[in-house]
Amino acid sequence: MATGRTHRPATRSRGIPEATVARLPLYLRALTALSERSVPTVSSEELAAAAGVNSAKLRKDFSYLGSYGTRGVGYDVEYLVYQISRELGLTQDWPVVIVGIGNLGAALANYGGFASRGFRVAALIDADPNMAGKPVAGIPVQHTDDLERIIHDNDVSIGVIATPAGAAQQVCDRLVAAGVTSILNFAPTVLSVPDGVDVRKVDLSIELQILAFHEQRKAGEEAAGEPGAVAGNPEDPGQGPDGDVPAVMPA
Amino acid sequence: MATGRTHRPATRSRGIPEATVARLPLYLRALTALSERSVPTVSSEELAAAAGVNSAKLRKDFSYLGSYGTRGVGYDVEYLVYQISRELGLTQDWPVVIVGIGNLGAALANYGGFASRGFRVAALIDADPNMAGKPVAGIPVQHTDDLERIIHDNDVSIGVIATPAGAAQQVCDRLVAAGVTSILNFAPTVLSVPDGVDVRKVDLSIELQILAFHEQRKAGEEAAGEPGAVAGNPEDPGQGPDGDVPAVMPA
DNA sequence: ATGTCTTTGTGAACGCGTGCACAAAGATGG
DNA sequence: CCATCTTTGTGCACGCGTTCACAAAGACAT
Q1: What does this protein do (chains A, B) (predicted)?
Q2: B114, CA 20 to 30 Å: which among A97, A154, A203, B91?
Q3: Total number of domains in chain B
Q4: Where on strand D do bases come within 7 A of a protein Cβ?
Q5: Nucleotide nearest to B62 (CA to C1')
Q6: Would you call A205 and B249 a contact, using CB atoms and an 8 Å cutoff?
Q7: Is B46 helix (H, G, I), strand (E, B) or coil?
């Protein structure tokens, strides 16, 4: 789960569970694909397979939105696309600013998935004066000094932070002070924000570490029955009673 | 959370819950920062604050690893860094290939967070013949034709997919066939993989959509008490008993 | 040694999310 | 109109994860 939220107890907005909300974009994507192929209706079984989830879960998810299906037939694709879009707030325009136009920021600016779903890159912001005015993805980069004005002029409420870790909290504070209430954070830092501000984080390094854990486990398991495994590290699961004292470990 | 796994029921490897595994990298990062400041010990309260979690949760997480704390004092920073690194499998070298060297792939190749944690970018692979040989982040890009050989020669078990959605499943199949057992997927598609292969996905668009949902909810809530809200869409939360009829009605 | 004080480690309760399994609803055919 | 068949919507039970609250463990001072 690359994603995590800041505290706040429940967040069950109007009864729609958080887990369901997280899956709605998945359903929406599958439905959009069906819509483009002019498929009129789809059963929970088919759609669930396309979205990679359990069909019962999908039906329960949709039940939170209302009863939009027809028994014996399935769901009307167009209708469902509309309902989910509306529920997610994608029927309106969301201006977004991206702060930190390095490799990642540029990649995000160029990412087509934003524009296609109601998100509009309203501005690119970077602290490097040399970047100012230079167009990235057809949008001229602006300097950090103008951050507050940009947020205000474009009525931005969603900000994307793609700066180095050291600058992230400071940028975050300025975004929030300027009125941003939702932040997507790519910097490897824990951001602290006041109540009422949502933060989601995407941490590439953490994802890889989680994969490494499972990878190691898999290697350890098959090494148990099969001595000469792939990437053999001889001492791992033995579990010495007190653990060996470390050498100085890398960062 | 931008992250999700493919099915598989439990995955509680040796008793360490999945949720705990996902937090270990977070603790590790905070501990590393402390270590660099030569802080010798840290209490669960302090560390939890730094990692942005509940202190009880942190203690329970650590309890799955063993009893590494000292009551009345706290945890030894260096020791804990080592233990978590070992648990996550970061004491060994993980060669990684990145497939799809577009904007995002290049950003990933340049991302410093990989190298610092035992992950080594073993190769960059792209389908564009014009890219072949061109260095990105100091590493020459290789052509997709050589994918299987590259995986094999470098004994790669972790692959990163940063291709367009259309190519992702095909690349995935080839990676898996070549021996990759863990995949980090940035393409906006649901990948299907055989049992035993772990997939984590990072989907930028989905993260934004989840933020938009909460943003809309916030706007709706404050609009209830305050008529002239920010981005006013006049008809949203009233919640007509049956929802308003969409443009196209189902049969 | 003994008492006090801090902090860990964990038992237990609670809530959320998941998946099964089935009844109700509607389509379809005769 | 009735029977049958398909597919939804959901009641229910179970398991995981979170949080509280506290006893046990050790440090430290006297």
Answers
A1: Modulates transcription in response to changes in cellular NADH/NAD(+) redox state.
A2: A97
A3: 2
A4: 5-11, 15-21, 24-28
A5: C9
A6: no
A7: helix
Question: Do B75 and B98 belong together in one domain?
Answer: no
Q: Which residues of A are annotated as a binding site?
A: 100-105
Q: Do B209 and A157 touch (CB under 8 A)?
A: no
The residue of chain B with its CA nearest to that of A14 is: B217
The two three-digit tokens of residue B208, written as one number: 């934004």
Q: What CATH number did the domain enclosing A130 receive?
A: 3.40.50.720
Using the 3D structure, point to which of B61, B86, B111 is the last residue of a domain. B86
| Nearest CA among B16, B71, B66 for reference residue B43 | B71
pLDDT in tens, B56-110: 999 999 999 998 999 999 999 999 999 999 999 999 999 999 999 999 999 999 9
% chain B with pLDDT above 70:
82
Q: Are residues B154 and B127 in the same domain?
A: yes
